[in-house]
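Backbone-to-sequence.
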């Protein structure tokens, strides 16, 4: 089984965005040494508690401080952009870091309606046109525009020896169908949805020529089950707060989570949240991932871990790497 990391650059209460981004860079260096396959950075806009609106910028820094791990976006929210601009940016990364760059692509707004309006005109129309934009993006990478195409004479320079590898990210059958139609790899966000993920991914694998998939899961690992459960209190409270339009100061501390007075409705929300998080000691985490592997029939999981302590997050990834003997 291959393991990778998805980093949303979370800001903890009491920390600054700079500290969150520094933690992202440091974690990428650790992941490189631990034997993780990929390190992807998410894109969000004006979402309190998340520090990365521009993955390509921080990937440029991560690339210079790592050696072998693949780096990529998780994901570029394509409806906000022109295909040529994204092709240029990721071609530049692929030129600097040959054979190491992934381009994860998504269609979500990644922020509020106001942020979406500030980023792009008529976002819903751009979502509708996304399959065409994706065609343009892939054509720029494959140099395959037909002669009559208006963009056939331009190139998204620099042109790397090895193009970025495109992945489509999604949480629905619609995204799986699109990835299969375009013949590109597919990343399914298990931690973001209650849909029947295994059937969606199996449909992609059945219909796609690429047949490369990974599953993004939320995991919190510690030396003991009790410690992992305690660490998970922070992210559980934060999700409850976000659902209520709160949590703007970032990931709460364990102390804050323990002191929080949950209503019955909020307690029910926590139980639902826990269904989408793997929490446990290293052997328990490994067992649950192996069970998911049987369900999904995939050989790669991408792990997102949210804790208040950046040290606890790093330790979680270290314990998992050691349990799976990644090196």
């Amino acid at each position: 089984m291959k393991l990778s990391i998805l980093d949303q650059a979370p800001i903890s209460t009491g920390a600054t965005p700079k500290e969150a981004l520094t933690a992202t860079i440091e974690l990428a260096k650790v992941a490189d040494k631990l034997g993780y396959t990929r390190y992807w950075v998410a894109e969000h806009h004006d979402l309190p508690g998340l520090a990365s609106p521009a993955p390509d910028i921080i990937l440029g820094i991560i690339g210079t401080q790592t050696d072998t791990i693949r780096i990529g976006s998780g994901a570029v929210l394509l409806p906000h952009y022109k295909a040529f601009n994204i092709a240029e940016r990721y071609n530049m990364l692929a030129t600097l870091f040959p054979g190491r760059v992934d381009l994860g692509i998504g269609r979500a707004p990644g922020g509020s309606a106001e942020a979406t309006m500030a980023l792009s005109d008529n976002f819903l129309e751009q979502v509708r046109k996304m399959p065409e934009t994706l065609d343009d993006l892939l054509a720029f990478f494959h140099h395959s525009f037909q002669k009559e195409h208006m963009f056939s004479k331009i190139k998204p320079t620099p042109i790397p020896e090895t193009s970025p590898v495109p992945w489509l990210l999604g949480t629905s059958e619609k995204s799986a169908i699109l990835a299969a139609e375009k013949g590109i790899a597919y990343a399914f966000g298990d931690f973001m949805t209650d849909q029947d993920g295994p059937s969606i991914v199996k449909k992609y694998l059945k219909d796609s020529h690429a047949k490369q998939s990974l599953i993004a899961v939320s995991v919190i690992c510690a030396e003991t089950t009790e410690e992992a459960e305690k660490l998970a209190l922070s992210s559980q409270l934060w999700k409850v707060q976000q659902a209520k339009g709160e949590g703007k100061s970032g990931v709460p501390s364990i102390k804050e989570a323990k002191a929080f007075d949950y209503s019955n409705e909020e307690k029910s929300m926590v139980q639902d949240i826990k269904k989408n998080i793997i929490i446990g000691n290293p052997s328990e985490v490994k067992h649950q991932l192996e069970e998911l592997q049987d369900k999904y029939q995939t050989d790669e999981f991408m792990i997102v871990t949210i804790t208040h302590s950046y040290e606890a997050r790093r330790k979680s990834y270290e314990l998992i790497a050691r349990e799976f003997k990644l090196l």
